[in-house]
């Protein structure tokens, strides 16, 4: 399975990624007071989303069916089943942002 590698030591940081033949810019931020991550999304310089919180098992940007958004699901998930939280200690350790074609993830 493909996943997005989040480099926690560089947060806050931006990176470009191609999803379904479209280039997107992600910006990853961390709230140390409440121990959670957010993602901002841009496409062709246009801001599509800001502060979308990483929630375990929930697709990023799931609130939008807008065709400008990635046409894949990006879901924080722990394949080993060790945890069901996205925190500083779990992200990129046991929880990764897995990329699924829409409809491929069955829960």
Quickly describe the structure.
By secondary structure, the protein is mainly β. It has strands at residues 3-4, 13-19, 22-31, 36-43, 46-53, 72-77, 96-101. The radius of gyration is 13 Å and the shape is globular.
Overview of the structural elements:
The protein is an all-beta fold and 107 residues long. The chain has one domain. 0% of the residues lie in helices and 44% in strands. It contains no helices and 7 strands. The strands form 2 sheets. The protein has a 4-stranded antiparallel sheet with strand order 2-3-4-5, with no helix packed on it. Strands 1-7-6 form a 3-stranded antiparallel sheet, with no helix packed on it. It is globular. The relative contact order is 0.22. The mean pLDDT is 91.
**Uncertain ranges:** none
| Strand line-up of the largest beta sheet | 2-3-4-5
Compute the number of structural domains: 1
Mean pLDDT: 91
Q: Tally the helices: what do you get? A: 0
Termini gap: 15 Å
Name the beta content range: 35-45%
Q: Given the helix and strand composition, which structural class is it?
A: mainly beta
Using only C-alpha atoms, the radius of gyration works out to: 13 Å
